[in-house]
Amino acid sequence: MSYITIEDWISGFILILIILGITNRFVKKNKTDPLIVRYFKIGIILKISGGIAFTIYYAYVYAAGDTFGFFLEGKAINNILISDPSGFFNFLFLPINKNIDAIRSFTWIWGDPIMTRTEENYFQIRLSAFILPATPI
């Protein structure tokens, strides 16, 4: 199962073009600094290429792991927003110990709420649920 859609690839390509345009403006503005002129564009391109390579490997070769778990559980919590807004905000803002009954009764995609056993993991799920309404999924 791939979590990267054609829309993601298109929007990613557009963002890369925007970043490269900003990079060009920055380099032209700082053309008196030989280090920026020589290395900045190369550094940005290498950084973007590494991110793309990592994404391709993680999404298509590795195809599993906690990152996908955080994403899927955040998406499941996000789906509560329409049906039960107060429940959504409880999931989003209450700590685990104050929200344990809701966590146990919630239908988790991974079956067992294993991703919610620590506050750090639960934070990742909440962050994903918070960001997802702003993304075109």
Brief write-up:
The chain is mainly α.
Overall tally of domains? 2
Low-confidence stretches: none
How much helicity do the residues have?
A: over 70%
Gyration radius from CA atoms, angstroms: 20 Å
Helices, by number, come to 7
How many β-strands, per DSSP?
Answer: 0
Which overall shape is indicated by the principal axes computed on the Cα atoms? elongated
Structural class: mainly alpha
Oligomer: single chain
Q: From N to C, what is the helix and strand string?
A: HHHHHHH
Distance between the termini: 15 Å
Strand content: under 5%
- What integer is the average pLDDT? 80
- Biggest sheet layout: none
What does this protein structure show overall?
This protein is mostly helical and 137 residues long. The chain has 2 domains: 6-62, no CATH class; 66-134, no CATH class. The chain is built from 7 helices and no strands. It is elongated and about 60 Å long. The model has no long low-confidence stretch (mean pLDDT 80).
